[in-house]
Amino acid sequence: MNRANAVSRKLIAAATCAALAAGCGGASTLPPSLGPGPIPYADTLPIREPEARDPLEVPRILDDAVAGEVSHGLSVRRAVGEQHEALNLTPFDDVVPSAWFALRNPVRRMTTVEIRVGPTTGFGPDTTGVLEIISAKVQGVSPGFNIQDAKGDRYVVKFDPKGFLHMSSAAGVISNRLLHAAGYNVPEDFVFVFSRSKLAVAEGATIRGEDFKDRPLTLDVALDVLALTDSLPDGRYLAVTSKFVPGPPKGPFFFEGVREDDPNDYYHHEYRRELRGLYAVSSWINHVDMRWMNTMDAYVPPGYLRHYLIDFAASLGSGTTRPHEPREGLEYNVGLWAGLGRVFTLGFYQVGWENMTWEVIDPTIGWLEGESFDPGSWKPNWPNRAFQLATDRDGYWGAKLVGSFSDEQIRAAVDAGRLSTRPAADTLATILMVRRDLVVKHWYGKVSPLENFEMEQSTADPAVHEAEGGFGVRFDDLGVREGLWTSEEVQYRWEFEHAALDRDWHGAGTATGTGDGQRVAIGPGDRDPGKRPDGSRLSPEGSLAKLVLRVVRRPDGDAHPPVTVWLEWVATAGSYRVIGLEH
User: Fold this and answer.
1) Domain identity same for 239 and 321
2) Is residue 564 a part of any domain in this protein?
3) Is residue 43 part of a domain?
4) In a 3-state reduction of DSSP, which class is residue 132?
5) Cβ atoms within 10 A of the Cβ of 566, count?
6) Nearest to 444 by CA among 474, 472, 414, 402
């Protein structure tokens, strides 16, 4: 390991030790969330080029589907409700930009053009010259080609199943655009139209058959792949094409553990917020095939691994080779516990999807739940360790990504899929809007969705501020912003502790303000005056205080779990500043 990597690991280790507040010599006495946070792009330091890996699929499927499910189902920690939160968090309950993720739309509203273009830098394969087929495959769920165009760029080309032209190609590109805008690394995907006459076979090209063996490829055999799809009315063919990502591919990443030959890969993947929060995003776009087989590590300049999500054809209403069915999204392909239930009840045990009536919405869309979609019970086709360990805080974070998309942005992403009719595109966009709202409603209800805290003098009663140290707190209630409730429908219950100023206050109040955020006055009230014994106005610089605030829904008094806001006393200003929060 070179010096830069050693420094990187030490810096990240120091941040993690502080975050865990245990197990490291001289651990900080600060609250866990206030330890030194992750360092932006600390995992992009140059490393020695790792070997490419090509793990066997079947053993990992069995491990995930059986051993992983047993371990998760019998977990004592899960049974008693004790959860490990994500480790790579900033003091403000977020993540830093990294080789895994960089917030885009949630921090800067992208234009509809930017959404439609996504990660692409061109227009797809150059069709002015010959498209050389480098290799082809007929095995697997999605037969297709690898091609090289006249510019020397290489692409993976996959086709829609017969009878469902546009379905998987549109789903792949639409989900690509949404995941990119959310912040994930994805390849350049396009809906691609070409003429069969443009195809030629490169020297040395091979085809992988059903027996997974490679054989020499001829043009006649390559054209047989086209027989597995439909042509357009003008005789041309349509496919989804994905440009090879920059740098040599190094195989997939897994949703647990670390990659041992990557010194930058410090946090175990099942404890990464961006992978846990991906659960909420995947449920929104119904990406049931979100597993390690659809990931890719690439060795990019100046010499580090960038982590990609790839192949989104099994999303939205598409099951790649057929429309989705109700089981997908509700039960694993190998549903261990549901399967055992059916065995031991001689088949009498049934779950809800088995009695569901459904039909394809449109051949270009497939089947996708709208109003009946339940974000909390959604499942991918295969168990995913990061998804299994996701907490309500992770789900809320992912829901904020989903909630950042406007109706216009969703329509722009759908337009990138180039569906054949306007009614089909409008229908799919509407379903995505409905599912977005359901994701937001579900996960925002699991926490107190309060963000962007600022401290100010109490606008309700300035005398409280001057005489007894009260203050006002301003924040954004995302539940109000999303229309889940109004300021008039909620109270904000608060607890405030500041030992250095002998303050231990409790109270509740309604908020003032709407468009520019909500404001609540925090003060001693009648129950606990909390006056400073010596009457002084200033106290030790930098002393910590804690404000616990929660949304209380009226009239039933249903209280959401709280958000904790950490404050620091600025003695010279006689006021607090926000230094962290956790939901």
Assistant:
1) no
2) yes
3) no
4) strand
5) 21
6) 402
- Are 142 and 96 contained in the same domain? no
3-state secondary structure of 347: coil
Chain segment 381-437, per-residue pLDDT in tens: 888 899 999 999 999 999 999 999 999 999 999 999 999 999 999 999 999 999 999
Helix (H, G, I), strand (E, B) or coil at 148: strand
Q: Is the dihedral of CA 411, 313, 189, 159 positive or negative?
A: negative
Whether residue 175 contacts residue 187, with contact meaning beta carbons closer than 8 Å, is answered with no
User: Which backbone phi and psi does 216 adopt, to 5 degrees?
Assistant: -55, 140
* Whether 121 contacts 188, CB under 8 Å: yes
Tell me the pTM. Answer: 0.87
* 173 and 263 housed in the same domain: no
Q: Residue 9 and residue 14: Cα distance in Å, rounded?
A: 8
**CA–CA distances in Å: residue 349 to residues 317, 383, 390:** 27, 22, 28
Phi/psi zone of residue 440: left (φ > 0), alpha (ψ -120 to 50 degrees), beta?
Answer: alpha
Q: Side chain identity at 111, as an amino acid letter?
A: T
- How large is the C-alpha radius of gyration of the chain? 27
Residues 300 and 413 in one domain: yes
Q: Which two tokens stand for residue 69?
A: 């499910």
Structure letter (DSSP) for residue 123: S
Q: What is the pLDDT of residues 294-352, one digit of tens each?
A: 999 999 999 999 999 999 999 999 998 899 888 888 888 765 545 555 445 555 555 66
Structure-block tokens of residue 523: 């003060």
